Amino acid sequence: MKKLIAVLALILGACAPSPLKTIVIFGDTLSFVPDPHDQDVLIHRNSRFVTTNYSKFIIDPVTLFSDQYAGNRGIKPEELAMLANEFRNELINTLKDGYEIVDSSGAEVLRIRTAIRDIHPAHWELDEDEFVLLKFDTTLESAVMEIDCLDSRTGERVVALVHPLKGRPYMEQENLSRLRNIQDAFRIWAKSLRKRFDEEKMKSNSRP
Q: What pLDDT, in 10s, does the model give residues 64-78?
């Protein structure tokens, strides 16, 4: 009997739906589930909408949220503003050769809102004279991207994504710029978003 119960528990566990995670993004509390293709990414979908119905994008200005931790690492407010503008440009440049970027709402237009939060730039330690580099752990400890895609005419949410990014080991002779490290993350996120849209389009085109 104990063996039967154990087997049933394994079967039920394997069939159980992915656990929901509640996250507040852009002022709304949403339930997310892990993306089946990338467990690090959390996704929220509105079943009333299909992303492949959209071929044009409005890219809103990017919002960067930085806590005191990032401030202590030397990221200035003007640098955050510059990074926000750079990431918006990165998104536009990555998407524009396959999709139309527009400024006004309309049919088949998806409005994309983006926020970057929990920026923890690379950690380094200097000697007491702040001259010689003693320790450098990762190029970027962590950051989180939030993507909120809305129907441009109704304002209803179509899909939302939360994509954390962890740091990687420091490579000798690598550029030590804190801003460069964050910019590298921007490129990864922009390419990931483009890949996601492309894959959704390919799935739609392959359906009979």
A: 876 554 444 556 777
